[in-house]
């Protein structure tokens, strides 16, 4: 059932979560599938509904309080093992919290025993963030519990950025879906690990860029290394294949206008109507252009933004992937190459790279 985010529905959902239920909730990044983070049995339902392997840890979401900063709230939460940190490291966390919370930054920090092992996949650290979406915040305050919430899709599939997408992914596995409208950011939060000595590692790129983090933290940020295989891992969730459509997706080395004859014949090897995911531009013109290069092959194009606006492109990426994937007329998908740059550009590159493979 998709619920409008009325005060009554928020209260009902909060009561359901307190009683050990699960519910899909909007955040500014993507929709999450939430459970009381302190209740292992409730979190187990989240893993089961998503068919998520238990080696992939969950992100814990916290409520921003009226008169207390997110940093202070986290300090008093009982979730983080502060005594392990150097003074420097704590100052770094405080600076990041002040600048980016509530918002799309997740910090991975050493946990206390209060956090169930299931939530962190047995790791000694827990991922935490304060989401900025007003419905998420209202629900967190009403629930009065930290909420563990991974993206509300089946494991390995495209993250949902609208309430309807959650229903498409999980159907009646989730009874309640709180509708907060389309997600503003459209890509999952930046995940940053803070070591006890203050060293920073970027585990997942998102809207908050490494450059912004360096500026605020006054220290460098290391890149996390992606793992190619599943199984127990140092940086979990960095699975090479993720966010994947069901149809094959090939990433073009160049924009449609610049494809060489070699690229064209590589596309021609695959039969059927083509779905084109374009970064920018006019869809009718893109369809016409690619179809002409392919001797009249039918093409359906969807553009992430008419004028190449990066924020719009990020917002639309998963919805457009989903739309092309569910079009029964399309046999396979091709995508223009991801943009250069950090922050949202890096995040789009990362998600596209995991969703498809090079042509
Ligand atoms: O924007 C988001 O972060 C969304 C919304 C719902 O908040 N959530 C989300 O969760 O994307 P999920 O489960 O799809 O991704 C969680 C990822 C893990 O796959 C892993 O990469 C990282 O967060 N993570 C969580 N706990 C970790 C830990 N203890 N150590 C390292 N990475 C961790
Ligand atoms: Mg996910």
Describe this structure in words.
The protein has 359 residues and is α/β, with parallel strands linked by helices. The chain is built from eleven helices and 16 strands. It has helices at residues 7-18, 40-50, 70-75, 87-100, 134-143, 163-170, 210-217, 261-268, 283-293, 310-326, 344-355; strands at 2-3, 23-25, 32-36, 59-61, 105-110, 125-129, 147-148, 177-178, 190-194, 200-204, 221-223, 249-251, 273-278, 299-303, 330-335, 357-358. A nine-stranded mixed beta sheet has the order 2-3-7-4-6-5-9-10-11, sandwiched between helices. Strands 14-13-15-12-16 form a five-stranded parallel beta sheet, with helices on both faces. Strands 1-8 form a two-stranded parallel ribbon. Helix 10 packs parallel to helix 11 (344-355). It starts with a strand and ends with a strand. Threonylcarbamoyladenylate is lined by residues 27, 29-30, 32, 56-59, 104, 106, 108, 120, 123, 125-127, 131, 149-151, 188-189, 191, 203-204, 235-238. Threonylcarbamoyladenylate (TXA) binds next to strand 5, strand 6 and strand 10.
């Amino acid at each position: 059932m998709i619920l409008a985010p009325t005060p009554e529905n928020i209260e009902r959902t909060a009561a359901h979560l307190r009683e050990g239920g699960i519910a899909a909730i909007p955040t500014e990044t993507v929709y999450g599938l939430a459970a009381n983070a302190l209740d292992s049995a409730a979190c187990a339902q989240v893993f089961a509904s998503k068919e998520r392997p238990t080696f992939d840890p969950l992100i814990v979401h916290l409520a921003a309080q009226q008169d207390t900063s997110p940093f202070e709230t986290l300090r008093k939460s009982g979730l983080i093992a502060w005594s392990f940190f150097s003074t420097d490291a704590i100052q770094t966390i405080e600076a990041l919290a002040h600048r980016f919370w509530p918002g799309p930054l997740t910090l991975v920090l050493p946990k206390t025993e209060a956090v169930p092992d299931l939530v962190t996949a047995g790791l000694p650290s827990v991922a935490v963030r304060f989401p900025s979406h007003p419905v998420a915040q209202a629900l967190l305050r009403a629930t009065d519990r930290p909420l563990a919430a991974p993206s509300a899709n089946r494991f390995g599939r495209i993250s949902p950025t609208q309430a309807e997408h959650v229903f498409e992914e999980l159907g009646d596995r989730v009874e309640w879906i709180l509708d907060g409208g389309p997600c503003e950011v459209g890509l999952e939060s930046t995940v940053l690990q803070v070591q006890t000595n203050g060293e920073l590692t970027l585990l997942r790129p998102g809207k908050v860029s490494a450059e912004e983090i360096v500026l605020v933290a006054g220290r460098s940020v290391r890149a996390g290394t992606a793992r190619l295989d599943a199984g127990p891992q140092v940086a979990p969730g960095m699975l090479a294949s993720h966010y994947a459509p069901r149809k094959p997706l090939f990433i073009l080395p160049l924009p449609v206008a610049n494809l060489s004859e070699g690229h064209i014949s590589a596309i021609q090897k695959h039969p059927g109507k083509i779905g084109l995911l374009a970064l920018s531009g006019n869809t009718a013109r893109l369809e016409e252009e690619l179809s002409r290069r392919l001797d009249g092959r039918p093409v359906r194009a969807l553009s992430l933004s008419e004028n190449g606006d990066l924020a719009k492109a990020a917002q639309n990426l998963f919805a457009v992937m989903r739309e092309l994937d569910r079009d029964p007329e399309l046999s396979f998908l091709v995508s223009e190459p991801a943009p250069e740059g950090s922050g949202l550009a890096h995040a789009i590159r990362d998600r596209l790279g995991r969703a498809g493979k090079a042509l």
